[in-house]
Amino acid sequence: MSVTFRERMAIAMSRELGDHEVVLTGAASAVPLAASLLAQRSHAPGLTVLGAGVYINPQRLVPEFSAGWDCRPTAVGDLGDVFAITELGIDVMFYGGMQIDEFGCVNVHEVTTPKGPLRGPGMANTMLGHTAKRTILFTERHDPRTLVRSVDFASVIGHARRGRTRSELGLPNTGPAALFTPAVLMRPNADGAFRPDLAFDDRPWSEVVAGTGWSFQEQRPPRFHPTEEELTLLRSSVDPDGLLRAQG
Questions:
Q1: Of 147, 141, 149, 154, which Cα lies nearest the Cα of 106?
Q2: What is the Rg, in whole angstroms, of the alpha carbon atoms belonging to the chain?
Q3: 95, 115, 92: which is closest to 105 by C-alpha?
Q4: What φ, ψ does residue 47 adopt, rounded to 5°?
Q5: By C-alpha distance, which of 205, 210, 209, 184 is closest to 196?
Q6: pTM of the model
C-alpha cells in the first residue's frame, strides 16, 4: 500500500507525543494536527491539543486553522489565552519555518535573497519556543534552501546560536527534540547538532545529503515503518477525506 510522505511524517510525529501532555500547533500545520489527533485516538487519549493556540481539541483535520470552526473544536480561546499559556508553559510546541538550521534554530521572519530581504509570515508569540518543555520542528521540503547551516534570522533559538549554547543564552527549556522532513527524522547529538536518526523512504542517500545545508556522516539510518494499525486509524478516523494523501 502506497504511503505518502505526509502520512509517514504524521505517524512518526504522533509517536513523539505522550498521554496527558499539552501540545500547540501553528496556524498552517496539517501534519502536526494529524499527528496530534492520531496520538489522541491511539496511545495518548489524555493529550490536549491547542490548534493555533486557540482551537482547543479540534475534532477534524483541516489544512490550516484559518478555517476556524471547521476544525470542530470543543472550545475556543483568544489571543490573551495564548499569552497566558506561554507563561504557564506547555509540553510541546510545533514549529516549521522558512529556514531551519543545524542546531534547530528556526527562521520565520526574513531571509536574504539576491534581490534583497524577503519577509516571512512571522509569528504571534515567539516565546512559546522558549517556554514549552520541548519543541518539534518540521518542514515539508528537504532542500538546502530550507535546511541551512545557519539561519539568516533566529525567530526561535535551537540548541545553539553563534557559538553560544541554550544555557549560555539563559534559555530554560530543553529546546528542539526532533526535526521531521519528507526524507528523514533527525535528532540532536550530544553537541545539539541535528543528525539523521530514521529514513522515511528509499531515495538515494546522496540526495538526502545534498539536500541538507550542513554536513553529516554519509550513512543511511534505519528505515521508518508505520504499522498497519497506525495507517488504518490515520486514514479511517483522522483523515477520512484524504487530505494527507491528496497533497503527498
A1: 154
A2: 17
A3: 95
A4: -65, 135
A5: 184
A6: 0.94
Integer Cα distance of 137 and 148 in angstroms: 14
Which single residue is written with the C-alpha cell 534583497?
116
DSSP string, the chain: ----HHHHHHHHHHTT--TT-EEEE-SS-HHHHHHHHHHHTTT-TT-EEEETTTEES--S--S-GGGGGGG--SEE--HHHHHHHHHH--SEEEE--SEEETT--EE-SEEEETTEEEE----S-TTHHHHSSEEEEE-S--STTTEESS-SS-SB--SEETTEETTTTT--S--EEEEE-SSEEEEE-TTS-EEEEEESS-S-HHHHHHTSSS-------PBP---HHHHHHIIIII-TT-HHHHT-
pLDDT above 60 for 67: no
First to last CA, the chain: 14
- Rounded distance, CA 10 to CA 221, Å? 19
Q: List, as one string, the DSSP characters of 64-111.
A: -GGGGGGG--SEE--HHHHHHHHHH--SEEEE--SEEETT--EE-SEE
Calpha distance 67→56 (Å, rounded): 14
Give φ, ψ of 12 to 5 degrees: -65, -40
> pLDDT of 150-204, one tens digit each?
999 999 999 999 999 998 999 988 999 999 999 999 999 999 999 999 999 999 9
Grid coordinates representing 243?
Answer: 487530505
